[in-house]
Amino acid sequence: MKAFIKTKYGGPEVLQLEEIDKPMVKDGYILVKVVANSANPADWHLLRGKPFFARFTSGLFKPKEKIAGADFAGIIVETGKNVTSFKVGDKVFGETLMGGAFAEYVNVPANVCGKVPNNVSIVQMASIPTAGLTALQALVTYGKITSGEKVFINGASGGVGHFAVQIAKSYGANVTAVCSGRNVDFVKSLGADKVVAYDTENIHQHNGSYDLIIDANGNLTYADYTRMGKRGVMIGFTTMGHMFSTLVSKLFGNFPLIQFTVESNTKDMQTLAELVAQGKVKPQIEKLFSYKEIPEAISYIEAMRTRGKVVMQWIDDQNQTVSTNNLTNVPF
Length: 332
Ligand SMILES: NC(=O)c1ccc[n+]([C@@H]2O[C@H](COP(=O)([O-])OP(=O)(O)OC[C@H]3O[C@@H](n4cnc5c(N)ncnc54)[C@H](OP(=O)(O)O)[C@@H]3O)[C@@H](O)[C@H]2O)c1
Fold this sequence. Notes:
Elements: E1 2-5, E2 16-19, E3 29-38, H1 41-48, H2 55-58, E4 71-79, E5 91-95, E6 105-109, E7 113-115, H3 122-125, H4 129-142, E8 150-154, H5 159-170, E9 174-179, H6 184-189, E10 194-197, E11 210-215, H7 222-228, E12 229-234, H8 240-252, E13 257-259, H9 266-277, E14 285-290, H10 294-301, E15 309-313
Helix pairs in contact: 4-5
């Protein structure tokens, strides 16, 4: 099978498209023929081995996992022993955060996947796993969102943020969202009640009052959380220094601020699938790349200015490549 391989740390140029053996399906695992992947900041963090401390998990001098990529959606071609929740032919989506997804076939534990709803394309669902799951877990698992609450979402136009706005609305929240001026209309179209452009208003002086603060960008300070909110969830990070100082302030303060790392499970994946099937969450795909352009897709998202998501399709025949305008009718 074809797969994007990394044998050393570096930029997207270290990724090589190679022919390697198809993985053997393990007990409790499913083998999925990949239809599409999406790109996440975690992909280039792992590719570059940055921040450095992450190498204690991903490999000190070179990456332990040779195949890049986390998010995938596709069709099950084989199931391992003890897999009861899925069968061959099921359309699934999932994530394997440490890598393995940028390949024709991915071998993953069944319990990190969800089923693609009948009325949604596999390509659309490929945009969901890491970003959708992070938004859901920030709001629901850790943020304990309830209907009628006032929620502030910083970094609302990116992968995580654009899902967070829609999920918060679907839980009945009143949403104030923050993005750059060029994305204000986009974020309003997602359902935000109020949108603040960070390039015209200094967010560190914003004086609103909220039940829950979600920071998908990662530049809010501890003082921002305590000034504006009753509880907070920190998702993104800008610099190690900023994250460290926020967490140290939290140690000495009593504001309920949670930082977490997303973890995949079928229950949350199914919740996301239902929200998409009901039209409450609409994945917004800014750009579609071919699988051959996966290094270019990673380069593109490294700027951290993605509007919604970037998706890469495993299709050789360019005539079959769908446009971002017509994703509801794609043949997969
Ligand atoms: N904790 C976890 O488990 C977890 C999981 C997934 C992701 N993350 C982290 O979450 C962050 C967001 O991920 P993502 O996938 O959403 O990234 P993304 O798709 O690249 O989106 C980044 C967004 O940040 C916005 N942004 C840039 N500067 C900003 C500023 N000063 N204030 C507010 N927003 C700003 C950009 O919007 P504009 O273009 O409008 O500025 C862009 O849409 C990343 O740091 C990622 O590593 C953490």
